[in-house]
Amino acid sequence: MTKTATDRRTALAWLGAGASLPVLAACGSEARAQSYPVSYSEAEWRRRLTAQQFRILRQAGTERAYTSPLNDESRRGTYHCVGCGNRLFSSAHKYDSGTGWPSFWRPIDDGAVGYSTDYLLGYPRTEEHCADCGGHLGHRFNDGPQPTGHRHCINGVALDFRPA
Fold first, then answer.
1. How confident is the model at residue 107 (pLDDT cuts 50, 70, 90)?
2. 84 noted as active-site residue
3. How far apart are CA 151 and CA 142, in angstroms?
4. Which of 23, 33, 68, 100 has fewest C-beta within 10 Å?
5. Which of 130, 145, 140 is nearest to 95 (CA)?
6. What domains does the chain contain, in order, with CATH numbers?
7. Residue 95 has pLDDT above 50, yes or no
8. Residue 69 CA neighbour count, 13 Å, CB half
9. CA 120, 122, 126 angle in degrees (round to 5)?
């Protein structure tokens, strides 16, 4: 067995043993350190959101692939932040990425989402968050379609779809 395979296996065992809590706290810390136009106490966020929405938006969680009904949503409309109502994505920019999460090749406008770097998996990823409340939405990858080449891989539970 190679040293890399051993290191990876050791890291996965370490994370599975509960040592991931400090690492999880680092996920999205850049986004949470900023101030946003929409801001509530933790207690108020818990009151306003379901347990799953709170886990995704406020604790940078991830829903299981293929569990969101919005993954298969094909009607015309707009996707808003479930936490604050900010307009995030248009159905005109949605596509089937085959990943199991609603995916878009661009946000509705340049100011709709913000970005930070998370190291949850041990390497840098571009975390995507709502520009108005800082809620964790998902991640942006550079394997999407043209014209942007981006895939905004978004947790469906973080979105509120409003048909046109």
1. very high
2. no
3. 6
4. 33
5. 145
6. 3-163 (2.170.150.20)
7. yes
8. 3
9. 60
